Amino acid sequence: MPALYVMIPAALLLVGVAIYIFFWAVDSGQYEDLDGPAHSVLFDDQDPNHLAAIDEANRAEQPPKEPPHA
């Protein structure tokens, strides 16, 4: 029985710490982007085809340059 006098407050303290850490993680934005890291695994940054697609997309967003006037 005396062990319960120690174990119950210790368990309540651990639950309180876990709840505090959970709310800290939510407030600091730890759960904002849950899909980004999962999708980033699928793409290799060193893949030349992947980098070429990024360059092509960036060129498509920029307006075409006008040729210099002669």
UniProtKB/TrEMBL annotation:
InterPro entries: Cyt_oxidase_maturation_cbb3
Record-annotated membrane-spanning stretches: 6-26
Annotated keywords: Membrane, Transmembrane, Transmembrane helix
Pfam families in alphabetical order: FixS
Protein name: Cbb3-type cytochrome oxidase assembly protein CcoS
Gene this chain is encoded by: ccoS
